[in-house]
């Protein structure tokens, strides 16, 4: 989820002294070599230097903000700000001030000018996380900004032009929300230009060990310690788990293990109880509404392996029975073995 930032801190003086007063974020890495994440990387690279609005779909914790940062860092806007906004935290009453900014004296407590999130992102990327959480009132106000590319700060009458690249993310099905009347159709089509699907971690099982090692290295770097290694038993438990909380859950598990491990190796006992439970690994996958991504990932794996299902299974991190079921369900045509 996007970080919660204080719009009041985004004033003009702060912008001149340092880039919005934010700590520099390291160049993001989309860790993984599975076919599922490779498809995402390839598409992201092809659209990174475009100005088109990007919508990222995916389950909670799957890494949508990391993908948004990756797009920003590989674009020609990389030297400009990346401003994440958690739409679920925006209130109707403070929306205009938080997004558009305000001038000094615009309301009680407005003791200085505030840029607001949108103008703070000028020249860079505005990341609207959980866009499906905006009320209809806020959706209408956001639509106008996206159409006209200008904002009017609260308490002012002068429109201020902005040059922003918009990336939004959601774990909701916006098309269904449009049909139910809870999301504006015109805003949906304004946002639905380039769509990327971030795969859930259960469909990236071959990436789990690489991601776990990455998070362990981050913990070691944070505390100035030597990186811990995974024991074979811990590695098996990690790859067998279904990860309902996705990459975010894996990051938390690795922090948990790093804190509890007494030696240089993460043992099975250092992992949370739920990862040592066989019943947890038999849980059915949660909401899957990403058939296009699955189809692309499987087709790409079959192409790379020249329709060798055994090799494709290794790339996809699934067994042959599961691959055959996916091929049949998604109607993928493959050469006869």
Dominant shape: globular
Distance between the termini: 43 Å
Number of helices: 15
Q: What is the total tally of β strands? A: 9
| Total number of distinct structural domains | 3
- CATH class of the largest domain, please? Alpha Beta
How confident overall, as mean pLDDT? 80
Query: Helix fraction?
Result: 40-55%
- The whole-angstrom Rg is 22 Å
Are there runs of 5+ residues with pLDDT below 50, and where? Answer: 7-28, 278-290
Beta strand %: 5-15%
The strands making up the biggest β-sheet line up spatially as: 2-3-6-1-7
Strand/helix succession: HHEHEHHEHEEEHHEHEHHEHHHH
Key phrases:
337 residues, alpha/beta, Rossmann fold, Helicase, Ruva Protein, domain 3, Arc Repressor Mutant, subunit A, five-stranded parallel beta sheet, two-stranded antiparallel sheet, 15 helices
Structure, described:
By secondary structure, this protein is of the alpha/beta class. The protein folds into 3 domains: 7-197, Rossmann fold (3-Layer(aba) Sandwich), CATH 3.40.50.300; 201-281, Helicase, Ruva Protein, domain 3 (Orthogonal Bundle); 291-330, Arc Repressor Mutant, subunit A. It is built from 15 helices and 9 strands. It has helices at 12-17, 35-47, 64-73, 95-100, 116-120, 136-148, 174-180, 185-191, 208-223, 232-240, 246-260, 278-281, 291-304, 309-316, 320-330, and strands spanning 54-57, 82-86, 125-129, 150-151, 160-161, 165-170, 194-197, 229-230, 265-266. The strands form 3 sheets. The chain has a 5-stranded parallel β-sheet. Strands 4-5 form a two-stranded antiparallel sheet. Strands 8-9 form a two-stranded parallel sheet. A hairpin with an 8-residue loop joins strand 4 (150-151) and strand 5 (160-161). Helix 2 packs across helix 13. The protein starts with 11 loop residues before the first helix and ends in a 7-residue tail after the last helix.
